[in-house]
Amino acid sequence: MSTRTLTIGFAAAALLACAPLAATASSSGGMGGGSMGPSSDMPATRSPQQIAVDDYNSGVAHKQRALSYLKDASAATNDKDRQKAQKKAEDQFQSAAKDFKKAISNNKTMYQAMNELGFAYRKLGNYEESLKQYDAALALKPGFAPALEYRGEAYLALAKYEDTKNAYLELFRTDQDHAALLMQAFDAWVAQLGPAPSADASAFATWVNERKKVAGVTQVEPGKLERDW
User: DSSP string spanning the chain?
Assistant: First the structure.
C-alpha cells in the first residue's frame, strides 16, 4: 500500500479524528496511512492535534525508510549486507512506533496513527500488540479497510487461520482492492510453506487456492493499491 499525505489546517484540526487518509482533511480515500502536510495558517501556539500531525509525519517518514531498507535486505547478495539492512529497517520501525505513539498521546482519536503503529509492531514481530492497535483503529473507524487488511496479515502470522479467513471475507464483501492485497499476502505465505506443513496450515493453503478461484482476479489493477511488504 502506498503511503500518502494527510494535510490539516488550523481550522480543520478538530476534524482530524474523522478525516480519511487523503491530501486534505476534507477529501476522501487513502490507503494505510500517510504524512500530513504543514498548515499554511498554523497559529503561534500549536494545538495537541497539530503536534500529533507532526509526530505522525515523522513516523511515516521512518516507516518509508524502513521499507526501503527491507528492499535492500531482499536484494542483498550476502548475509552481512542483508543483516545490516535488516537492522537498519528494525531501527526505523522502532522510531516509527515511538512517533505514532506520541501522535496518539496528543490525539487519542487518530485512528490512522493506530493503524500505522500496528503496522510497525507487526514488522517488529510484536503481533499481539499489533492486533491491539488495529482493533483500536477499527473501534474508532469501523470498516477501515487498511486496518482490516493489516489485521488479516497479523492473524496469519499467528496462525489464527479462522480469523484470517474472516478478515479476507469481510474485505471481499466491502473492499475488493484491499481483499486482493490480502490475497497477495496469502500467496506469499503459501509460497514459503515447507514440504511438510501442519494439517491446519495445509488446510488453509487449500482454502486460499479455492478462494482465488472464487475471486477470479487476485492481483490489484495497475495504478490502484500497492503493498507495504
Answer: ---------GGGGGGGGG--SSSSTT-----S----PPPTT--SSPPHHHHHHHHHHHHHHHHHHHHHHHHHHHH-SSHHHHHHHHHHHHHHHHHHHHHHHHHHHH-TT-HHHHHHHHHHHHHTT-HHHHHHHHHHHHHHSTT-HHHHHHHHHHHHHTT-HHHHHHHHHHHHHH-HHHHHHHHHHHHHHHHT--SS--HHHHHHHHHHHHHHHHHS--SPPTTS-----
Q: What is the pLDDT of residue 46?
A: 85
Domain boundaries, the chain: 10-39+46-215
Q: What is the mean pLDDT of each run of 10 residues along the chain (229 residues)?
A: 44 34 35 57 78 97 97 95 97 98 97 98 96 98 96 96 96 94 95 91 95 70 52
The model's pTM is 0.77
* Whether CATH 2.160.10.10 fits 10-39+46-215: no
